[in-house]
Structure formats: structure tokens, C-alpha cells
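User: Okay, second chain of the day. Same drill as before: sequence in, C-alpha cells out.
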Amino acid sequence: MEPTDATLTVHDSHQPFGSELTHTLMDSSTVFKKLTSALDRLIRQDSYLFFNNANERSLCARLAMYLQEEFSTYTVDCEYNRNITENDLIKRLRSYKLLELLDKHVSADDTDGVTVYPDIIVHKRGETDNLLIIEAKKSTSNINHQIDKEKLKAYKQQLGYTFARFIVFGTNGEPSLIVQNVEIK
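Assistant: Same drill. C-alpha cells below.
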């Protein structure tokens, strides 16, 4: 039996009373199928970017375009750093482990955290309905993948993303164009 989406109307404590939000509940299988469909389309239609070692942002922008078609009731954004629950609206993560991985000084009174710009998010702007967050790297990147994986864990815990995926694009002659597509729990 195919999973179906369910709709739930709730009051969000961050919104004025009477402004209920509609959340579309999707299971991980549905989200994975939609993501896989978008990745397949990226490979079919944009293989030039992979074979010519294009910038990670170029690959993410094209993937986001295909994700928008799959998740039509959501907005798909790249490098989005807004958070309605912060007074200044800046998206931040507060994680000592992440700060250590980034080799940043951690002080006991640091409440600012790390300003973050996730590669791709599937969400509803101005609401707390955060469905999917994606961090991506190219196979030619020298950046420690653990940093992105820790960011994804923190996004889920602190910013309420339901699903998180870490993707590695195979570039510069890799035999597979998607080297990793891992769900972060």
C-alpha cells in the first residue's frame, strides 16, 4: 500500500493566536522517493555539471529546482538563513560539538551560536513547518564530512527539521554521480 500524506492543522506558539498552520505529514519513504526522483532528474538533465566539476552551489541550485516540483506544497530554498523563532530572524545553531569541529573558540557565555546557511531546505517560509534539510558536498571536496553531518543533527534537534539528508555528488570522473545519499537520524 502506497503511503499517503495527511494534513494536520495546529496552533503554533510562535504565531499570533488564530493563525493556525497546516502541516503536511509525510513519512520517510515518501520524502525519500521524492528526493530520489529529483536526484534522478538532476543526473539525467544536468550531467554536464558533474562531468565538468561545477561548483557545489550550481549542483544544489539545480537539485532545489527539481525538488520544488516534487514538494509543490512547500518552498525549496538554497542557502536560506532566516529563522522566525530568533529575535533578529538569523538561523543559528548552538552546538559545542559543531563549534569544535569548525575549530572555533567555545566560551561558556556564548549564546550567539553559529550562523548557518543550509545548502537546501524544504519548508514553509514564515512558519515552523521544516520538512527536509540537505547538506551536500562534492566528492572532490577536502572539507570534513562530519561537520555537515553534525550540522544536520543540530538542525533536526534545534530547528525542528523532520528529515535530514547528507549527499555527496560524484564529480571529476567518479563512476557514480551520487556517491552518498544518507539519512541523518
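The longest strand covers residues 130-138.

User: Thanks, on to the next one.
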